[in-house]
Description:
By secondary structure, this protein is an alpha/beta fold. Helices cover 49% and strands 15% of the residues.
Amino acid sequence: MTEHLVLREDIGTVARLTLNAPASLNALSDAMLAALKARLTELAGDPAVRVVLLAGAGRAFCAGHDLKEMQAGRAAPDKGAAYFADLFARCAEVMQMIPALPQPVIAEVHGIATAAGCQLVASCDMAVAAEGTRFGVNGVNIGLFCSTPMVALTRNVPRKQAFEMLTTGAFIGAEEAQRIGLVNRVAAPADLPESALALARTVAGKLGAAVRIGKRAFYDQIALPLEDAYDLAGAVMVENMLWRDTEEGISAFLDKRAPDWA
Length: 262
């Protein structure tokens, strides 16, 4: 069992997941990936949860892949080729589960978020970072270009900033991460949990079904040509408008009262 590697705490309609391998800076080991996949699968089927927070225990959010495990994989006759292919496929599966999750996912980041750890932040729908947090896709410093983290990173930040990070291995701070769009908010370290939770509670306070349909449409339309994106979004708006709770929400707004959502 790997449940201890990703802890879950429910705070009302917000579920807080904590990567819990502080000795390895919450590296994405085989066991950690399996535990995170299990937790995300669990949450996907939990209608009581409206927002997910993702944090890390100890000194850091996540330091990326477990390099010791990766080096051990080289002992195979194929020098690790099959293991590496499987590892990166499993990691990609977990990263893609986050935008596919019905609930918005907010990264609560402190310490460092490097390589696949930075990929994890970029895969989340939003992120709140503590002052002093460092972000990097620094694999190039050890001769391994961060090609899979690049996929998520380039879908968050402008390409020239992403390319500079990928090719120099340089770290950026929380304020710079916010400026280029990797992070939504920056908080004092002592205020990080409450700041992330406040954002989560704001989102959780909206009509859950509307947020779920909106999140799905957000990611579906972003990959489409402009005309097709409008066609998809228009169909989603029609579906949303026909809901009883949406009719009630609009009526409540016009009547200047709180909505009576079922």
